[in-house]
Amino acid sequence: MFQYYCLNPISKVGLEKFSDSYTKTETAEEAEGILVRSAAMHDMEFSDKLLCVARAGAGVNNIPLDRCAEKGIVVFNTPGANANGVKELVFAGMLLASRDIIGGINWVISDKGDENIAKAAEKEKKKFAGTEIEGKKLGIIGLGAIGVKVANAAKHLGMEVYGYDPYVSVDAAWNLSRDVKHVLNVEDIYENCDIITIHVPLLDSTKGMINKEAISKMKDGVILLNFARDLLADEKDVLEGIKAGKIRKYVSDFPNPTTAGQEGCIVIPHLGASTEESEDNCAKMAVKEMMNYLENGNIVNSVNYPSLDMGVCTQAGRVAIFHKNIANMITKFAACFGDEGINITDMMNKSRGEVAYTMFDLESPAEQKIIDKLQSIDGVFRVRVVK
Ligand SMILES: NC(=O)C1=CN([C@@H]2O[C@H](COP(=O)(O)OP(=O)(O)OC[C@H]3O[C@@H](n4cnc5c(N)ncnc54)[C@H](O)[C@@H]3O)[C@@H](O)[C@H]2O)C=CC1
Ligand SMILES: O=C(O)CCC(=O)C(=O)O
């Protein structure tokens, strides 16, 4: 039996995918697996029982990835599972910024008792007019799951699309419309585009990338959309840009005291992935990843360990080892089994940066003394008996 804990509400459709071998617990300490959306985990203590965290979503800046890696806790996310939900809200944001739809709706509410509202509307509506998005230049920073969907849909709406992503994946490149202008320099986006949307992860290298300097290179009256993370922009610089008339509107999916209620800002309460479809897709994928890992030790879509898949174990034993990516580890592991006369029938080793993951299938189960010996090897974070 395995126990899982939900740190945020997780879609029922996803939770129903758990087999009878799983029960939901009321405390994180009892769980082998945690399901999470945006809850902050940086200050959490993790119990020795915890084996994995599955983020039902894309961004993992709320999870201490390195600390988890050092404890042999695998962190998963669900790439692309909510991309369509975000894409659709990006276009809603683009349209809200291009015309004063919000101002117009508020005017209608303020005039709700007026018998002559229809006549008044025709007089007032010029205040809320705007521009169309067809024919405008759209710059997309980050051509991953969301950026590609936004790019392709924008082409269908008649926009001229510029895309920038120095690390674009082969998969994303295959899916991208050939009409998207792939630029090699982010400045080309700043200098040419009427509307700019950012779809990159929040990393040390991307934090604050939309700052005073970047804004100064943008066209006057640019519309900026941020459905990725607020800290990607220096929002004090954004407010100055609005005040100076450089930025026409800033649309953000991340409310905070800097932008909430500010002139020129349209701030949405983090609704990008809040659709039935995205929530179900993310939960289903997260549960599948968690079950595959807990039952088989297989790692698919991890953000702190390499992918490794040995299928379902048909042998008597399977042992998984989390360790530093350094020389001679596999020889030492193999010796621990060999010294006790245990035949290794299959093994795989994969590394990712400074960490590595090795799994052994064994002709007979590994006794505790072998596990203790493996655990005592310098550079080993965790040894897990899968079977
Ligand atoms: N508002 C919301 O509810 C949601 C927000 N997000 C945010 O959007 C981000 C992107 O999501 P996905 O497209 O699903 O992720 P993804 O991982 O598929 O795509 C991210 C892309 O950014 C690129 N990238 C990284 N650094 C870059 C840089 N310096 N310049 C240009 N490109 C760079 C990567 O190569 C990758 O192609 C997530 O990390 C998350 O923070 C994601 C889902 C929902
Ligand atoms: O789970 C959510 O609602 C947040 C989605 C998100 O921001 C993400 O997937 O990165």
From TrEMBL:
Signal peptide limits: none
Oxidoreductase in keyword set: yes
Keyword terms, alphabetized: NAD, Oxidoreductase
Residues covered by the ACT domain: 318-387
Domain of life: Bacteria
Purpose: Catalyzes the reversible oxidation of 3-phospho-D-glycerate to 3-phosphonooxypyruvate, the first step of the phosphorylated L-serine biosynthesis pathway. Also catalyzes the reversible oxidation of 2-hydroxyglutarate to 2-oxoglutarate.
Listed name of the protein: D-3-phosphoglycerate dehydrogenase
Organism the protein comes from: Suilimivivens aceti
Taxonomic lineage of the native organism: Bacteria, Bacillati, Bacillota, Clostridia, Lachnospirales
